[in-house]
Design goal:
Elements: E1 18-22, H1 28-40, E2 45-48, H2 54-63, E3 68-72
Length: 73
C-alpha cells in the first residue's frame, strides 16, 4: 500500500514568505543582498536569479502562497 492510502504521508507545505526576482542580470547582486537581509531578519525567501518574465514573478507566488514579492528591474 502507498503511504498516502495508509495516511502515513506527512503533510508538507511550502512556507516561503517572500520571493525576490532579479529581472535583469545586472541586478542579481542587489537581489541576492535583499534576500540575505530578509533572511537575517528571520524571513523565508525564494531568490529567483534566472531570467523569468515579470508575469511569472507576479503570479507564481500566488500559487505557492507567498506573502510578499520583491522585484528588481
Amino acid at each position: 500500500m502507498l503511504l498516502k492510502e495508509k495516511e502515513l504521508l506527512p503533510e508538507l507545505s511550502l512556507q516561503v514568505e517572500n520571493i525576490v526576482c532579479a529581472l535583469d542580470l545586472h541586478l542579481q547582486g542587489a537581489a541576492a543582498a535583499v534576500a540575505t537581509r530578509l533572511r537575517e531578519k528571520g524571513r523565508s525567501v525564494d531568490l529567483v536569479l534566472e531570467s523569468k518574465p515579470l508575469k511569472w514573478c507576479l503570479y507564481n507566488p500566488d500559487k505557492r502562497k507567498r506573502k510578499r514579492i520583491e522585484k528588481w528591474s
